[in-house]
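Hi again,

Forgot to attach this to my earlier email, sorry! This is the prediction with nickel (II) ion bound. I've pasted everything inline since the attachment limit keeps bouncing my files.
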Amino acid sequence: MLITIPDVLTVGEVAQARAALDGAEWVDGKVTAGYQAQKVKENLQLPEGHPVTVKLGEMVLAALARSPLFMSAALPLRVFPPMFNRYTGGGHFGTHVDTAIRSNAMTGQRIRTDVSATLFLSAPEEYEGGELHVEDTYGVHSVKLPAGHMVLYPATSLHRVAPVTRGARVASFFWVQSMIRSDGDRTLLYDLDTGIQRLAAESPGSAVGVQFTGVYHNLLRRWAEM
Ligand code: NI
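Structure tokens for the complex follow:
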């Protein structure tokens, strides 16, 4: 499932992030890429553990915690500390699949990357190109969102970032280990949850809503890995 989550960060938070990032010391993005991805990756990143990475990462994590849509769609067990990248001057990231297991540089804790996330920090009109292309069985999806908006997509997918031919594309990126490993199962739970929310809005106090809520939790109980 590919889903966009609007307004994860407020306008003020985006401005705060950009003020810190636009003056930061970026390094070659190849440092965190696996063997195959290194060959196709050409962008800049802030190092893991850099004070700006840590501070802004905490801001992103706090924003995720207050997003019901993120919780429902990702069903997060662990979130990898958010990182930040910058594409400019033709920078791009060719077709790749994300590394399955990553270690948190600070704690050594490993996470399985089930869901990939890109949180846009540049407005679309600030740069040319830079679309995220995600492949699934329905074709290729092109994503370019307003600053502060985020896209979630299966980490199992092949994806790429088109060359940025004007301006700079700044974003936060990270991964989620979900309680639900399978994208198909996670999508099913998300669809069920969305239906329950609609039912609650259209028929408050519905006994059917209570029954479906029970089904939702019992599926989660059956499938969740902790
Ligand atoms: Ni990737």
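The chain has two domains: 3-178, 183-223. The radius of gyration is 18 Å.

That should be everything now.

G.
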